[in-house]
Amino acid sequence: MSQMYKPLPVEEDAVASRDTSTDHSSDEKFEWRTNKRRTLRSIANSNIAWIIQTAMFSVSVTLFAVTMCSRASENVTKVPTTWSPVNEAIKYEIKHFDLAPIPDGPFVGKGDDVDAMWEWATDGIPDTMVTKSELLKMNMDPTGALEVTDPKTGRHGYRVAIEVFHQLHCLNLLRQANHKAHYAPLGGDTAAEPEDLHGHLDHCIDALRQFVMCQGDTNVFPFRFPFNDGDPWPDYSSPRMCRNFDKIRDWAVEHGVERGVDEPEH
């Protein structure tokens, strides 16, 4: 007797149920993973944005601090100065003064060698010349100022001297007056009548006094032991910020204007 076989509905339902359950489970896992990736990506993006903002803030603070420090430094170290055509020659350098208790150097004392050094430093330096606009730029009135023509170039302008060489001239006169017995017989300023010499010296002393008080040197110096009887002696060798004299002298020589034939003595 033949038998008919039919699929068992219960088993089909069970298989279908398992397939459906598996599909739902896979979908849920996929969705969970997707959401997790989104959450991690969101957190990562948030962290990156926070890091970028923090870095930008740090850079801004740093730049602000550097700017403020630079401005503060400029306010302390930048020295205001009046305009001069010679300013283009200024070069700064650190120097130590050489001032022993008993001075001894190429500018000290009397004699031909010392005279040659002072001639190099001041007496051999020519005047220069500026235009009317440059004179006005220095807040100087051109009215009555000595007008000259440069014999070499034919340019017209106003004769001017550079102050440092006048100051050195005054110091040289004080040196010569200190050794008047040597220099008066040779002629020159120290051979003038006593009244004239005293007037010249007073002029130089006050010119140097005004310059020293104008500069107001704020460098300091210590006192060291021993010196002769054991007392402390000032140590003047502290470092100072100086203008390179050779540069200024070179500029003055290069821009020197000789005196014209008909130019009055001054």
How would you portray this structure in words?
- This protein is 52% helix and 9% strand.
- 6% of the residues are buried.
- It has a three-stranded antiparallel β-sheet. A two-stranded antiparallel sheet has the order 1-7.
- The chain starts with 8 loop residues before the first helix and ends in a 12-residue tail after the last helix.
- The protein is mainly α and 266 residues long.
- It has helices at residues 9-77, 112-123, 132-137, 163-178, 180-183, 194-215, 245-254; strands at residues 92-96, 128-130, 147-149, 156-160, 223-224, 233-234, 239-243.
Topology, element by element:
Elements lengths: L8 H69 L14 E5 L15 H12 L4 E3 L1 H6 L9 E3 L6 E5 L2 H16 L1 H4 L10 H22 L7 E2 L8 E2 L4 E5 L1 H10 L12
Antiparallel strand pairs: 1-7, 2-4, 3-4, 5-6
Helix pairs in contact: 2-4, 4-6
Percent range for β-strand residues: 5-15%
Mean of residue pLDDT?
Answer: 81
Quick one: biggest sheet? 3 strands, antiparallel
What is the SS-derived class? mainly alpha
Low-confidence regions: 1-22, 72-76
Q: How many helices?
A: 7
Let me know the number of strands.
Answer: 7
Strand order of the largest sheet: 2-4-3
* Termini Cα gap: 155 Å
- Element order: H for helix, E for strand: HEHEHEEHHHEEEH
Query: Helical residue percent?
Result: 40-55%
Overall radius of gyration: 44 Å
Shape, per Cα inertia axes: flat
